[in-house]
Write a structure and sequence with these properties.
- α1 crosses α6, α3 packs across α4 and α5 packs antiparallel against α10.
- The longest helix has 14 residues.
- The chain starts with 27 loop residues before the first helix and ends in an 8-residue tail after the last helix.
- The protein is globular.
- A hairpin with a 5-residue loop joins β8 and β9.
- The strands form 2 sheets. The protein has an 8-stranded mixed beta sheet with strand order 2-1-3-4-6-5-11-7, with helices on both faces.
- The chain has 339 residues and is of the alpha/beta class.
Length: 339
């Protein structure tokens, strides 16, 4: 009889003996700690867990996890994760990537993995800069950003990672930040519990090449007034005294309001399970950048069959309907055909 009991583990069990090689003070340390603390609580086995990354500072993550791991090539982590998840649906598949790795060279792989609803949990570390290659602007850098590759200021309009994920119809989309471990752990827990493509953007500080990029909204003293917590089924309110909120205007657009002026009954009630992604997309654009009140938490969590489940259904159907040919025999045959 197979023992299905999951061994009790601690944070130490999930950490390797590798020296963690990030710059002192990097936000990546906080994310790594949050994940290593969370995994013992998830009831999963190390031998059934795999972390896949691309290239970048964040992509060193698999070295520090005592699990299976793939440090893959630039931008291709979602494609490799798709293959692993499809071939081994019994595994717990995680993707760790950065704003440059996922949204530049990896943009095409990202959107297709999300739209297919591949069953993995993706953590996108967003520091709005290329850190590993020493400070070039990235796809999330703001317009006017002066860097080594944009000495006169960036002229590209930046991606909003959460908006991009929603546009690709990801079934779970959320945002958190590296200065709130409790919020990070709860957000990542929710992402892991979801069956399908889970996308979590993590605002992460690069204290060497882009220090303080999110300080205007994540600084401890400003968080109550600058971070808008999203809770399913509850009116969207924020502020140190909960005096501000989000409402929908007559023209269908969202705006931030004073609760005392409009009344609580006018506030938008957050519905993360709403199937059309339009309202969540509007919420993702409530702030034009990390200097205005910004929604944080789960924006969307809807159910849809996973890519692997649909693929398995097709394989079973093909086997049942198989004619005189033998697909297994064909795949195992030689590499030449005579026409």
């Amino acid at each position: 009889m197979t023992d299905t009991t999951v061994p009790i583990t601690t944070k130490k069990d999930w950490a390797t003996d590798q020296e963690v090689r990030w710059c002192p003070g990097c936000g990546d340390y906080s994310i790594l700690t949050a994940v290593q603390m969370l995994l013992p609580e998830l009831g999963v086995r190390r031998e059934n867990t795999v972390f896949i990354s691309g290239i970048g500072c964040s992509s060193r993550f698999p070295y520090y996890m005592s699990t299976y791991g793939v440090h893959s090539i630039h931008g291709r982590a979602p494609a490799i994760a798709t293959g692993i998840a499809a071939a081994r649906p019994d595994l717990d598949v995680w993707v760790v990537t950065g704003d440059g790795d996922a949204l530049s060279i990896g943009g095409n792989h990202l959107i297709h993995a999300l739209r297919r609803n591949v069953n993995f949990t993706m953590l996108l570390f967003n520091n709005q800069i290329y850190g590993l290659t020493k400070g070039q602007y990235s796809p999330t850098s703001e317009v006017g950003k002066v860097t080594k590759s944009t000495p006169f200021g960036a002229i590209d309009y930046p991606f909003n990672p959460v908006s991009l994920a929603l546009g690709a119809e990801a079934t779970f989309v959320a945002r958190t930040h590296d200065l709130d471990r409790k919020h990070m752990m709860e957000t990542i827990r929710r992402a892991h519990e979801h069956r399908g493509a889970s996308f979590v953007e993590i605002y992460q500080n690069c204290n060497v090449f882009n220090d303080g990029a999110f300080e205007a909204i994540t600084g401890k003293e400003v968080r109550p007034d600058m971070l808008i917590p999203l809770e399913h089924g509850k009116p969207i309110r924020f502020g140190a005294d909960n005096s501000r909120g989000v409402m929908m205007q007559a023209d269908g657009r969202l705006r931030i309001c004073d609760v005392n002026e409009v009344g609580e009954d006018k506030l938008l009630v957050h519905d993360e399970k709403r199937e059309p992604a339009g309202l969540a997309f509007q919420l993702s654009h409530l702030a034009s950048g990390p200097h205005e009140p910004t929604p944080i938490g789960v924006l969307r969590a809807v159910e849809r069959p996973t890519y692997e489940a649909l693929m398995q259904d097709q394989l079973i159907a093909a086997q049942e309907q198989q004619g005189p040919g033998d697909l297994a025999k064909l795949l195992a045959s030689g590499g030449t055909w005579q026409v």
